[in-house]
Design goal:
This protein is of the alpha/beta class and 494 residues long. Helix content is 30%, strand content 25%. It has a 5-stranded parallel beta sheet, sandwiched between helices. A 5-stranded antiparallel beta sheet has the order 9-8-7-6-13, covered by helices on one side. A 5-stranded parallel beta sheet has the order 15-14-16-17-18.
Length: 494
């Protein structure tokens, strides 16, 4: 069984913090609680078993305290951070591209979604081992490797994913077998309920039993179907604290290629159209995204050689519904683009969906298009640093440099701008640098920070020069809106 993950939960309201902690503990996640900055930093300094940081909600903190606390945490630790944000569209944090946050979850989301995102962002194990006979250790152990996707028996024989169909019974070990066995090893408390099982689970279980032994997997009857459990104690090996993110660095503004695989024609057309409208609203460039829509998994695989920046993948297409996980493996083998799963599964099944190797993110239907747009941006824009000239006409004045990991701004003379990394103004600057067209509109600011937008822009101008950021007014359906535009060519470094 997978050892419990440990999460640092930072919530200032004691009642909300305790409720969330109890829920997570009920899901097999150990929780270290902190009510604010001192408790969070003390926990990070005192404990080396924390796997992930859950940041917020912070209801009672001053408006400028949250970014400062987040900056302090990121300076003290390299752990992934999941931030909780408000429930409204206007509260969606457009600044996330500049904060290094690993993931986001709405405050009003079901806590099972938070559990799923914890499992997706927390470090994974490279391999698992379980004994052939717990009463006789001399019989050796079985080992499943998540990197090579292989299973090795105690005698050293390997079963590798990809054995052709029609192989002799007892030697076939396809991707469905691998994923189901991995789910059993990772599940807590070592059992999978019927709702978390693929449709052909009984056949897969019997074929796995033929390989590892019938005594390794037990079954019990439940009202909605059989429940299966591993009859051995599993040990995880090789925990990785730093997993390389999938996807490519975009070093210049260019058209982002999106592959949308959705079998429902109405949903496919609606989602594709709404996404392009969201792109137009945020970038004023209808061609910033190029969306290719397909209706089946086989069509998606056929289109992959064309090269895509991100893949939006529905798992319930006609040719994938009986084994929805197989398409993820095939897409992963054919493309390095990040995969965002669009899932209609119940929340208690979501962890089994998103823990497939290659999945970068997931969203449950119905899809919130503004959130989808931001998640696409998060998974495709991961530059580490930016540079821009102090004077475009005279390059000899040197470059400013922004480091998103260290949250620093360095002047052309080499002197750092002290204190900027702990301010919202740093996030505003990074948002301008990462936008498709170099602009940022007032509606993209979190609701509580709209009034301070002009102050942040004014502060940035005082630091880097008033000529770097222009102010424009545009007319929209809702009236006149202010747009800020960055006036320098930006060079991006991976």
């Amino acid at each position: 069984m997978q050892p419990a993950l440990t999460a640092l939960l930072i919530v200032d309201h004691a009642g909300v913090r305790r409720y969330r902690a109890r829920y997570l503990e009920g899901k097999g996640i150990d929780v270290v609680e902190a009510g604010g900055r001192d408790g969070a930093l003390d926990a990070l300094a005192a404990r080396d078993d924390i796997d992930i940081v859950l940041f917020g909600p912070l209801h009672d903190a001053a408006e400028d305290a949250s970014p400062a606390l987040l900056s302090d945490i990121q300076e003290a630790s390299t752990l992934p951070v999941i931030a909780t944000f408000g429930s409204g569209r206007a509260d969606f944090p457009a600044f996330v591209l500049g904060t290094g946050i690993a993931d986001l979850v709405r405050e009003n989301a079901h806590l099972d979604e938070l559990v799923a995102r914890i499992h997706l962002r927390a470090p994974l194990e490279q391999s698992y081992e379980f004994s052939d006979d717990e009463n006789d250790p001399s019989l050796g152990t079985w080992r499943i490797d998540t990197i090579s996707r292989s299973l090795r028996d105690p005698g050293g024989r390997s079963f590798t994913v990809g054995v052709p169909r029609g192989a002799p019974r007892g030697t076939s070990f396809g991707l469905p077998h691998f994923n189901l066995l991995l789910d059993l090893l990772r599940s807590s408390p070592g059992a999978l309920p019927p709702a978390a099982m693929p449709a052909n689970v009984s056949n897969l279980i019997n074929e796995i039993r033929e390989i590892v032994g019938k005594d390794k997997i037990a079954s019990t009857r439940q009202p909605d179907g059989p429940m299966y459990a591993l009859n051995r104690t599993a040990a995880a090996r090789g925990r990785q604290r730093h997993l390389k993110a999938r996807g490519t660095e975009r070093t210049e503004a260019r058209q982002l290629k999106v592959l949308l695989a959705e079998d429902d024609r109405e949903q496919r057309e609606t989602l594709g159209h709404a996404l392009l409208q969201e792109v137009l609203e945020n970038t004023r460039d209808a061609k910033a995204f190029d969306v290719t829509a397909v209706a089946t998994g086989s069509d998606a695989l056929a289109r992959l050689p064309g090269g895509f920046d991100v893949i939006l993948l529905d798992l319930h297409m006609p040719d994938t519904v009986h084994n929805p996980y197989e398409i993820i493996g095939k897409v992963t083998d054919a493309s390095s683009a990040p995969i965002i799963v669009l899932s209609g599964y119940e929340l208690d099944r979501t962890p089994q969906v998103v823990l497939r190797p290659g999945v970068s993110d997931f969203m449950r239907k119905p899809i919130d298009i503004s959130e989808l747009f931001m998640r696409i941006r998060m998974r495709t824009h991961r530059p580490a640093a930016f540079e821009f000239r102090d004077d475009d006409a005279r390059g000899d004045k040197g470059n400013w440099r922004v480091d998103t990991a260290a949250r620093t701004l360095t002047a052309p003379a080499g002197e750092p701008v002290h204190g900027l990394g702990a301010r919202d103004a740093f996030n505003v600057l990074v948002r301008l640098l990462t936008s498709v067209d170099g602009t940022m509109r007032i509606h993209e600011f979190p609701s509580r920070q709209k009034e301070g937008a002009a102050n942040n822009i004014g502060y940035l101008r005082s630091v880097i020069g008033h000529d770097k950021i222009a102010t424009e007014a545009i007319r929209t359906a809702a009236g006149e809106e202010t747009v800020y535009r960055f006036c320098r060519q930006v060079t991006t470094f991976g």
